[in-house]
Amino acid sequence: MTRRRILITGASSGLGAGMAREFARRGRDLALCARRVGNLEELRAELLAAHPGITVAVRGLDVDDHAAVPKVFAELSGELGGLDRVIVNAGLGKGAKLGTGRADANIATATTNFVSALAQAEAALSIFREQNAGHLVLVSSMSAVRGLPGKKAAYAASKAGLTALGEGLAIELRRSPIRVTTVQPGYIATEMSDRAGDVKLMTPLDKGVHAMVAAIEKEAVRADVPQWPWRVLGAVMPLLPRGIMARMS
């Protein structure tokens, strides 16, 4: 099945903008949301110039404004005549060691990455249940596979919650016309990963986005991307001694 009408949150840069470009190249109509509306307008102009046959709708949206999420999703669904796929991509990578005076950063990360993702899933599934069709994609992280120490603790926990949400929804909806996919990217070069200083096993943005879109199109329940080396590491990480995991702080 071709999911033609695709909504992407956090689409103003990084993985969201990259996925928008890849889906536009495939001829899909797009609904793009983010806080930075200027970036979205520039991206829209770029995509329409390169692919004049598609439709691109944009809206400003702070996903932490939970009341605004269903309103914006409904507006974009109306503009495109429905939504076939919603990609919950907006996220934060802030973090600090717990108890060091930066609770604000950890709480913000947990809120955006899990609670706000939950709000987006609620809005998307409300549309899909009414349509009796749709594909919900949750962009989690390989950090969800195992609790991480130090400044990554809250981030890993928020993504573990998101992966658990995706698994629960996939079980619930397994016999319905609604599909659920959780994508767990490894380190992909974006503004967020640059700030976090994650340089080991870093995948270039174009390659990482291509792997993500390919996995999304297959509509598997869960996908570790790029497959190499993250599928192997995803199996190994839960088995590693805590002393080795401590070096990842």
Describe the structure.
There is one protein chain. By secondary structure, the chain is of the alpha/beta class. 49% of the residues lie in helices and 15% in strands. The chain has nine helices and seven strands, in the order βαβαβαβαβαβααβαα. A seven-stranded parallel β-sheet has the order 3-2-1-4-5-6-7, with helices on both faces. Helix 4 links the parallel strand 4 and strand 5. Helix 4 runs parallel beside helix 5. It is globular, with a radius of gyration of 17 Å. It starts with a strand and ends with a helix.
What's the helix-strand series? EHEHEHEHEHEHHEHH
Mean pLDDT: 92
Radius of gyration: 17 Å
Number of strands: 7
Query: How would a crystallographer describe the biggest sheet?
Result: 7 strands, parallel
Strand arrangement across the biggest beta sheet: 3-2-1-4-5-6-7
Structural class: alpha/beta
Into which percentage range does the β-strand content fall? 5-15%
Low-confidence stretches: none
Shape, principal axes of CA atoms: globular
Helix proportion range: 40-55%
